[in-house]
């Protein structure tokens, strides 16, 4: 076994048969492939640490292109992004506060005010969803939602890799038909999250490695774990 790459607590090892001809233990450990480094380094940035400027169209276009590389049964491209920036965030805040007031009429005015102000915490909020096709029985709705969720993850990774910060948040308003409709989603669509986006504060959280215990195993037929 030879360590061929190491970064923080991640190491990559190869056995003799995996080594390329002439490959030997390097003096200085090379970095991981950039794509893998980007995946390992991504971390969410809370809205209060997201500042102006919001990403421009070129950055968003690359993030959308990355989103569209998600696995997609039947090539249905179910993911949908609706960008809300500038004064449109005020209108989104009204939608969120109105939704909360309808869903929980006893909500105190101060709590509604917090809901109203949520979209203003970051320069851009992205309503992310899935346009579900019910005329494709071979691709059930859960697969289309799974594909859209994978696309949203690619979108987050692409923003992070371009130096922008983002976080995927949810709220009861995601399941409010009138909110969905006001944002231009169809009845059959699913709203999957609010993605807050902006330029990260210098104090942004950095990626932390997560204990992989229990996450993965090799199946041995007949053996019950
Ligand atoms: C569908 C979905 C909804 C989420 N909703 C919330 C939320 O409402 N509030 C929250 O604090 N985190 C929420 N999260 C988790 C954050 O996006 C984030 O993953 C978490 O803060 C951990 O940070 P990390 O991504 O850097 O590990 C949600 C994640 C997903 C996938």
Automatic annotation (TrEMBL):
Protein EC: 1.-.-.-
Q: Which domain of life is it from?
A: Bacteria
Q: Where is the Nitroreductase domain?
A: 50-198
The annotation note on the cofactor reads: Binds 1 FMN per subunit.
Could you say which cofactors this protein requires? FMN
InterPro entries noted in UniProt: NAD(P)H_nitroreductase, Nitroreductase, Nitroreductase-like, YdjA-like
Keywords, A to Z, come to: Flavoprotein, FMN, NAD, NADP, Oxidoreductase
Amino-acid positions noted as binding FMN in the UniProt annotation, renumbered to this chain: 42-44, 69, 73, 168-170
Q: Which GO terms describe its molecular function?
A: oxidoreductase activity
Q: Which CDD domains does the entry mention?
A: YdjA-like
Tell me the protein family, please: Belongs to the nitroreductase family.
Instruction: State the name under which the record lists this protein.
Output: Putative NAD(P)H nitroreductase
Phylogenetic lineage: Bacteria, Pseudomonadati, Pseudomonadota, Alphaproteobacteria, Acetobacterales
